[in-house]
Amino acid sequence: MGAIIGVGAVMLSYYGNPANTGICVSCFMENIAGSLGLHNNFRMQYLRPEIMGFVIGAFLMSLRSKEFDSMGGSSPLLRFFIGILLIIGCSVFIGCPVKMILRLAAGDIGAVVGFVGLATGIYIGLEFVENGFQLGVARRAPRANGYVIPGIMIFLLILAFIKPAFIAQSTRGAAAQHAPMLLSLAIGLAIGAMAQRTKFCITGGIARIFLWGPREIMNCPRSTAMLISIISFVSFALVANLLTGQFNFGLHGQPSSNESFGWAFLGMLMVGFGSVLIKGCPLRQLTAAGSGDNDAGATVMGMLVGAALVRNWNLGGDASGTPLSAQIAVLLGICILLIIGLLNRKRGYGIAPEYQTGLE
Amino acid sequence: MDNLDKYSVISIVVLIILSTILIFYQISSGEADNRTAVVLRQYKAPNPELKQKVQIASALMENSNFDKASVLIEELVSQFPYDGSPYMMLGDLRIRQQSPIKAMLAYRDAVDLNPDYLDKKAPDFQGKKIKNTVNEARHLIEIELNKNSADKNLRSYRKTVYYMLRKIAGSCG
């Protein structure tokens, strides 16, 4: 899994995606939101096939392995809202957890701040999970519900190929930088399929270290496998960057970065915190939605709305730093996550059943 | 109420206070903060009058008539403050005048107003020239900072260098 995502992502940036952005769920959701007309930033409009590939790949793999199961009803509206906050947090850092790893593997020392923020947020989220936080148990839903997100992604993929007039496409800016469509789709499908099979999740892998400790983790095959995936992701991406000349060690002048380290830390803290509460990082939400998880589907819709808000309300970081509106959004977002945590706790209880099946 | 509740409530209060302070600060300085963001989001068709004057300024510089070019460019900057091309011309003029640091500052304004200057896919791309200027400026700044590391202006110019390097490297947004 790590090899596929590490090498695949670096190849995508080598063949045309923006630097250090072979895969970035938050950036790509912003591109898709722009393409659908949800914002008017003409430099950020493109139906990224990678996102569609993740969902469709996961969908096909879940059908093949008979793991497709339409489930839902576990506070979908809250998950929708947390999806918005995840994208805002990612945009402040200028990258999702996957891109954070890619930035680290490309030599961007500044991404370490994001990693520390993510780990801190995961730790805070786990404090709530270990003390009775729950969003409710998901129940089996009519099968048609589970087909909605994969169906939407298939539809968007068709639109991406036929390019109708009502779908905007940037001719300049970051969204105009993209790898060939078939390559993007192929890598997206491969990653989606493998991520569904392995339940790959960056926040989940880090969470297991906090839950069970480094020594305990070696006794748990799932935890060990997830950590191996993340480590191999970093390693393969690093080697691929070195071989393709995309490695540039240093703090200054890195692509998709700024020097607002404090806000980058807080942005990723919000991402880590929110991801633990809804059982998965943004990539995991996409693959889970492809497997029939309607609650993850609600999160994906929230991520799309969040992507539009980031552009419309200037809630993302850029090379000059973090705008005031984004700073306010991060502070309020963390505040809201804390309130959600407080309101959804059963005091005196431990880890709720839905989290005991494996913190993904 | 357990410890988690207490810490959460304290954190919530602190976060609300901080965000309130920031909101009031943004209300008072919101105009400047969002000006660039609003300008960048909107596509602007090229202004024919500006284009003509830029050509005149360019011709003046070609003929080494820097004084007249300088006057014209300063006029353009004040007449078209939200267009990147007068600032690009200003940067070109500073290059001719052997002032890479001032050129870099002008290019910064140009790039802030029109990111196409650093976009390889855009017809206005002038990334190589900007990158060379930034590298020259960086070299000069490092030399000067070695002599006088406490100089605030130089440290500010160095921040601009790093900013420009990040812009040149690119971003997903």
Describe this structure in words.
The complex is a heterodimer of chains A (360) and B (173). Chain A is mainly α and 360 residues long. Chain A has one domain (2-346). Chain A has helices at 2-14, 25-35, 49-64, 76-93, 97-105, 111-129, 143-162, 181-198, 202-217, 221-243, 261-277, 282-290, 294-312, 324-343, 353-356; strands at residues 71-72, 139-140. In chain A, strands 1-2 form a two-stranded antiparallel ribbon. Chain A starts with a helix and ends with a helix. Chain B folds into two domains: 1-42; 48-169, Serine Threonine Protein Phosphatase 5, Tetratricopeptide repeat. In chain B, 77% of the residues lie in helices and 0% in strands. In chain B, helix 2 packs antiparallel against helix 3 (66-79), helix 5 (100-113) packs across helix 7 and helix 6 runs antiparallel to helix 7 (152-169). The relative contact order of chain B is 0.07.
**SS-based structural class of chain B?**
mainly alpha
Let me know the number of strands of chain A.
Answer: 2
Overall mean pLDDT score of chain A?
Answer: 93
Unreliable runs of chain B: none
The SS-based structural class of chain A is mainly alpha
Q: List the secondary-structure elements of chain B in sequence, H or E.
A: HHHHHHH
Count interface residues per chain for the largest interface.
Answer: A-B, 54 and 42 residues
Order of helices and strands of chain A: HHHEHHHEHHHHHHHHH
Portion of residues in beta strands of chain A equals: under 5%
- The total count of strands of chain B amounts to 0
Distance between termini of chain A?
15 Å
Distinct helical segment count of chain B: 7
What radius of gyration of chain B results from the CA coordinates?
A: 21 Å
Contiguous uncertain segments of 5+ residues of chain A: none
